[in-house]
Specification:
Blueprint: H1 2-23, E1 31-40, H2 48-59, E2 69-71, E3 77-81, H3 84-91, E4 96-107, E5 111-112, H4 132-135, E6 156-162, E7 183-189, H5 190-195, H6 207-216, E8 227-232, E9 239-241, H7 242-259, E10 267-272, E11 274-277, H8 280-293, E12 296-300, E13 311-312, E14 320-325, E15 328-330, E16 333-335, E17 350-353, E18 357-360, E19 368-372, H9 374-391, H10 397-407, H11 419-422, H12 435-438
Parallel strand pairs: 6-8, 6-10, 7-8, 10-12, 12-14, 14-17
Antiparallel strand pairs: 1-3, 1-4, 2-3, 4-9, 4-11, 5-19, 11-13, 15-16, 18-19
Helix pairs in contact: 6-9, 7-8
Amino acid sequence: YHQGFEKMKLQLVLVVIFTATMCAEYVDNQYIEGSYIVMLKEGSTANLEDVVKKIEEHTSSTREEMKIKSDDSMIPMIFGKFSEETAKMVSELASVELVEKDQVVSTAKSYDYPNDPYAPIHEYGFYVPNRPNLDILDNINCIDGRYNPGSNGTGADIYILDTGIDYDHEDFKRLDGKNESRAKYGGYDEIDSSYGENMEGRDCRGHGTHCAGIAGGLYSGVAKDANLFSIRVLSCRGSGTLSGVIRGLQAVRTRHRENMDKPDFKGSIISMSLGGGKSESLNKVVNSIVETIDITIVTASGNSIAWACNGSPGSAGKNINVGAHDLVIDGESCSKPPASFSNFGTCVDVMAPGVRILSAAMNTVNGYVRLSGTSMSCPHVAGAAALMISENKYLTSEEVKQNIKKMAVDDIDRTESPLYIRCSSFSPRLYVSSELWDN
């Protein structure tokens, strides 16, 4: 009996180890050697120039040679290129909170379907037969061919931190029929700033345009009358830097503060379908923006079938982190399994459609393309947040988050999924209803 019991315990241990291994893959940090982010302590803005001077003295190099940039608009920060020895010296200064290596960030990898046509598909209004991702948002059980959330997101500003937006696409036309695009330059382009380009937030990859269409497209979008602003922080290759994303966030903060007193202003949402390895500095910036000026920040959890708490900005805490679910339609019934690629875990707040999502295609004027990824799930939730603040501009970002989580439908089906999916923690899916802003 004793030997049998010990054997059973060993088997249980092996099962637990196997399950943990399958359920705990991690996001790798891609550090940029010799490039650092310095974050000063709160209230240390006056020390910013002193820290820069100490770096210059320690290296015998000028700030121009080290490509040093500083910013005191939010948390005082310094970005620059210097040695590990200098980084260690800076980390020991009394006014410095942390020093962190810069790293690569990129779009949450999207899967496309090249055989699908780039044909015009005009489905504005309540009838949405080719966009079940919208149809399911306001239905508890299955689709009914209609999407009627009770709001259009009028007055809400959605900032797309991505590869840019194709401002000329028809999906960004105004709801009232005026000949003016709702998609505009958000006032900051990291790639222009770093490489001397002059794109002013225009897309050269397609990822940002597709995400913008999901958030607020006239034909493809959740919030069909929201304002869309491009903050380009990712290159034509779909990659950028941690420091560049932070500067993009700081630019949105500045613009939001400038708009707060305008009579038709309802509020701001940031949609970030990007990410990288875990970063303390990026997470702190995200949480500071949410807490200090009440901007709702929505992030993509990632497509690595990994534990979402190991990537940033998704793991920040004050943001709304989004996983992806599929939608399988069989006659009059629907199942919503987790997307095969979606990250998972306790750092995912809600799931949204993320498989074969139809939205605006860059450089086509009236073409649409299907993409998959948590990149596509994230702007669904950003659009839902815009619907809420459009109807109640006094909702705080925390109330927006809690309303979305409270209204989410717990019907994600994992029964046919592989073990690493079945043993994982998945959140309920996004549900859009006027009850979201009536609370």
